[in-house]
Amino acid sequence: MIKKLALTISVLSVIIITLMPGCQSDSATAESSKKSIVVTYSILGSVVKELVGDNANVTVLMPNGADLHGWEPSARDIETVNKADLVVQNGLELEIGLLKTVATAVERGVNVFTASDYITVLTVGEEEFEQEEEEHHSSHNPEAEAGGEHDGDHHHEAGTSDPHLWTDPLAMKRVSAALTNTLKTDLGIDVGLRSENMLIRFNNVNQEIEEMVSEIPAVDRKLVTGHKSMGYFAHRYGFKQIGAIIPSITSQAAVSAADLAALKELIEDNQVKAIFTEIGTSPAVAKSIGQETGVRVIELATHTLPADGSYFTFIRNLTRVIVNGLK
Fold this sequence. Notes:
Blueprint: H1 2-32, E1 35-39, H2 42-52, E2 56-60, H3 75-82, E3 86-89, H4 99-107, E4 111-114, E5 123-124, H5 126-139, E6 148-149, H6 169-187, H7 192-213, E7 222-227, H8 231-237, E8 240-246, H9 257-269, E9 274-277, H10 283-293, E10 296-299, H11 311-326
Parallel strand pairs: 1-2, 1-3, 3-4, 5-6, 7-8, 9-10
Helix pairs in contact: 6-7, 7-11
C-alpha cells in the first residue's frame, strides 16, 4: 500500500513538473502578445497605466523624479520607442531630448499620441494673463482651459507654450478621454469602463482641490516657484504666478543676477508668503532669496509621483503643500 502511494505521488510529481513549463510558456506568450505602450514620463505614465490596466504592457521611459527638461534617452530607450505600438508623449517640447527619437519612430510607422493636442494650451504672456484675470473675476468658469500667466520676467518667453499641463486635473481628464479613443481606434483596446471611472475621479479630485484652495483668500493666492511650472494650476484655481527663480518654462534655462534682483523685488512688493522650490532649482539660490526677503522656502514636488504612484495622490499632495504654505 505504501509503495503504491509513493508511486502515485511520484507519477503526479512528474506530471506537474512536465506541465509547469507549458503553463509558464502560455503565460509568457499571452504577456508578449499584448500591445506595447511607451510613455515618456512618470506622471503621464501613471494616468496611462491606470487607464489601460492589464490590456497592454506600459513602459515609462524617464525615471520618476528625473528633470524632464534635461533628460536624454539611452540606446535601449530609443530601441524601446521604435518597437512600441503606441508612444504617449506630452508635447510642447517638454521631452526635448526625445524629439529626434520620436520623429524617427513616426517615420518607421509608430503611432504617437500627444497629450497637449487635446487641451487648450496656455501661453506665457502679459496680455493673456490680464485677459484671463478679468474673466476670472467677472465669471469664473471651471471648465475653461484658455489663459496665460504673468510675472516680472514675462519678457523672456512671451507667447511661449507652457507644457506643464499635468498640474490641472481637468486638462488631464481631457487627455484621458482622448487617449481612450486612440486606444480603441489604433490598438483595438476597449477601456470604456475604466475610462468612465477615471473621468469621475478627475471630477472628484478637482472638487477636492477647489475646497482646499478655498481656505486661501484670493489676495494670498500668489505663487513663486523654481521655474514657470504652475501656470495650469494657477489658471484653474485662481492663483497668480508672481515669478520664478528660473524665469523660464524649462529648468534648464539660465538665470542672471538681474533676474534674481527683480524676483526679490516682486516678492517684497506682492507680500508673497512662500517660495516653492522644485526639481532643477538650486537649493542654495532658493535659500538665499528666502533669507533676503524673509520668506519661507518650501519644496514642491511638481515633477515627481508619490510613493503609491498615483496621479490623484500627486495632485492632492501638490495642492496640500501649496495651501499649507500660503496660510
